[in-house]
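Hi there,

I know you've been waiting on this one. I reran it after we fixed the sequence typo, so this is the corrected version. Both the input and the resulting structure follow.
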Amino acid sequence: MAVTIEEVRALALTLPRTHEALVRDRVKFRVGRIVYVALSPDETVMGFSYPKEERAALVASQPEKFAMPAPRDERFNWVRVRLFAIDAEELREIVTEAWRMVVPARVATEHLRATSAPEAEAPTTETPPVVAPATETPPVVAPATETPPVVAPATEPLVVEAPITEPLVVEAPTTEPLVVEAPTTEPPVVDVPTFADLRATAQVFNGFTGVDRSWLALRERTHPGLDPARVDHRDALLRWLNSWGCRIRYPRAGEPAPFDTGLAGWWATWSDTLPRGTLAGLDDVAVAAFGRAYGDLVTLPVTTGRSVRSLGPTAAAKALYALRPEAIMAWDAAIAERLHGTRDAAAFTRHLILGRDWARAVLAETGATEAALPGLVGRPDVPLSKILDEFLYVRLSMRSSAP
């Protein structure tokens, strides 16, 4: 899981215009005079370029992994990550996107094209090629250590909507009835939360600086409701997802925008059938529909080139929450694995059933309405579904219990 300074160095020095420097016993990687990655003296923490307006939400989303910069660095686009908490893939995403923030758009675009150019395929209709003698020059293969740039946001990204000449085709939702599995006899990973549990969780989240800032900004930009048919709303959703650590790549001028076009195609299928309502009020038909919508959304491509990356389970769940905040209890990888052992559509359906049962239980305990409960808990800016998600985050993702 943990990465080392050797891995950081090997990755950074593959990025154009990068050079290494040693300043006061700290290894730093620069483009010109601008530092975009710096290691702590003990080489356990890495600072990196990151938009300062989004870092509070990033830290709040994964406080065991990310940390705010030192006070002297708070005026910069900067945040820190603990190297023991990330793997090689996350390192590539973080370092590459930090580098993209400090190089000209042309340099980043050329690097993207060089590392994402598709490999030529041998023709299949002609006579099989003769194997070349061993003395001939072997074919050039793209370096295996470089991958397409990834998803941390740039400082002032230019988002260009690619024309939808070949819209993504998503199968229409089926009308098959929900099959609810019989309850297991194994003890639950987490007990049903009480009102006191949710109040304790609210104290934890209210302690994170600016934890609701990006959510309130999304609501303001998409008032009265998020509409993925609008390009500005799709852009707002992308920025919100990235502020919570999803790290979906912002396209530059002239580049494809797979997230934008894919989301538009998905919404064309689901806009008329995606259920509404509140978590406690969902019936089995609505829960099943959300599960299918999640299954379609999770596979949307967000990159192009040799290695295509999909939206993924965490971002898909958060996107559904942004669309139906009162109804969706989102998850992250730790929550999904601990509770359900997987993150497919069937597991997400079970997750919503669990959230519905918990919401009904705490409403029965308090006698409050679903609209009033967040204020009583101490989290008036988010719905009950989000408070239950925060409860699971504290109990499972943070590997600790609320005080």
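Quick highlight: The longest helix spans residues 345-366.

Best,
R. S.
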